[in-house]
Amino acid sequence: LLTKTPLAHKNPSVPDGHSSRGRNSPPNVAANNEWAPLRSVIIGRADNSCFPYEAPHMIEATMPARFHEAFKPANPFPPEIVRGAEEELENFALLLQSQGVNVFRPTKVDWLQTFGYTGAMPRDGLLVVGNTIIESCFAWKCRVDEMANSLGTLLSKLGADPSVKVVRAPRPPSPDTLYNGILEDPGSHEWAINNSRPAFDAADFMRFGSTIIGQLSNVTNMKGVEYIQHHVPSGYKIELLDVNDPHAMHIDATLLPLRQGLMVYNPLRVTEESLRRHAVFKAWELVSYPFVESVQTVEEATGGVPRFMTSAWLVMNVLVLGHDKIVVEEQDHEFAKWLEGRGMVVLKAPFRNVHAIGGSFHCASVDLVRS
Ligand code: ABU
Fold it and tell me: Is position 250 annotated as part of the catalytic site?
């Protein structure tokens, strides 16, 4: 790990409550794809992370079977994993700073006290489109206050800049209606939620310029898609991808754009044919992930640090920094080598403990500015 130095928790260009942006200052929020040079980013914080608690049918639909029992109220992740994850996140933040990226970190939250989950996965909670930050209307009850608790201060500061639009999520109805009818007749529903109110995780969407590719999932419904479409700046359009994954929850281990015109996709979840139906990929080279056989199953991966919450496809959940640079987990040698063969410059960092808490480099970050 890099030596620890205190990270900048404040962006000097965003003083409390005011915008300091002059005529030639860089924007505070501006991102409309996943590969342009990264200038400003939020990196999550793992302290005090607890297993999320959610309705059993939702846990069954989305989480690896062997760990279902861990998803109960007030159940912290093992302390050595949380400690390791926090070190890895700090190291990741320092790595990005060393690449000239401005890094924000969330407020430290006691998730045990708040009956929440974590601050380590901000990608799930914020969708940045152009100059607009849209807070997720989380389906999971334990996540409804996650952004307010961990990133509320930063969102207020960014929202004070007149050039930035921050759309905070409405409170869900109480009692929530999202599961009504699901338990009574589970066979008649494709997903673990109904369509009674907008629900989405931002990580079910990826930006490809003015086209945003998304998926319906166990946490994202059609009203959620319509809600996002309503709030994105004019000119942006959401298109839904046909994904074959009954456990779907987040699209960022399914698609990995490396640069304009080149994308890796997960062949167990999408086909090239389904991707080609979207005009935005017309001239793109679409490459099936090349080492399907060697992707470890969750069971195999648990030989090291358990992946309590994700599929084995986290290998694809990496962060592109722009200029063909990419951050990859330090043990994913085969993929790193393949990426280098494709002209990518690979920066390696340890992240296995963060994996245990729910995601990899893409999940643990939110790009605020890509130029
Ligand atoms: N949140 C990213 C994990 C997606 C997956 O497990 O496939």
Answer: yes
Total domains in the chain come to 1
Q: Say what the pLDDT of residue 9 is.
A: 37
Cα–ligand 1 centroid distance for 249 (angstroms): 6
- Nearest residue to 250 via CA among 124, 126, 136: 124
Distance CA 109, CA 184 (A): 36
CATH code for position 48: 3.75.10.10
How remote is the C-alpha of 176 from its chain's centroid? 24
Residue 33 forms part of a structural domain: no
Residue 305 lies in a domain: yes
Residue pointed to by tokens 């990518």: 344
Q: Return the pLDDT at 3.
A: 30
**SS3 assignment, position 240:** strand
The residue from 161, 201, 245, 367 that is catalytic is 201
For this structure, is 363 an active site residue? yes
How close is the Cα of 326 to the center of ligand 1, in Å? Answer: 18
Ligand 1 pocket: which of 313, 315, 316, 329 to mutate (most atoms within 8 A of CB): 313
Q: Identify the active-site residue in 142, 362, 363, 367.
A: 363
Dist. CA 191–CA 297, nearest whole Å: 23
Let me know if residue 13 belongs to a domain.
no
How far, CA to CA in Å, does 166 sit from each of 128, 135, 155, 200, 254? 9, 8, 7, 16, 27
**What spacing in Å lies between the alpha carbon of 247 and ligand 1's midpoint?**
10
Residue where the block lists tokens 């045990």: 112
Residuewise pLDDT in 10s, the chain (371 residues): 333 333 333 333 333 333 345 556 778 999 999 999 999 999 999 999 999 999 999 999 999 999 999 999 999 999 999 999 999 999 999 999 999 999 999 999 999 999 999 999 999 999 999 999 999 999 999 999 999 999 999 999 999 999 999 999 999 999 999 999 998 887 778 999 999 999 999 999 999 999 999 999 999 999 999 999 999 999 999 999 999 999 999 999 999 999 999 999 999 999 999 999 999 999 999 999 998 877 866 666 655 788 999 988 999 999 999 999 999 999 999 999 999 999 999 999 999 999 999 999 999 999 999 99
Residue of 250, 252, 332, 362 marked active site: 250
Q: Is the residue at 342 inside a domain?
A: yes
Residue ranges around ligand 1 (CB below 6 Å): 203, 250, 252-253, 310-311, 313, 317, 359, 363
Structural domain containing residue 338: 38-370
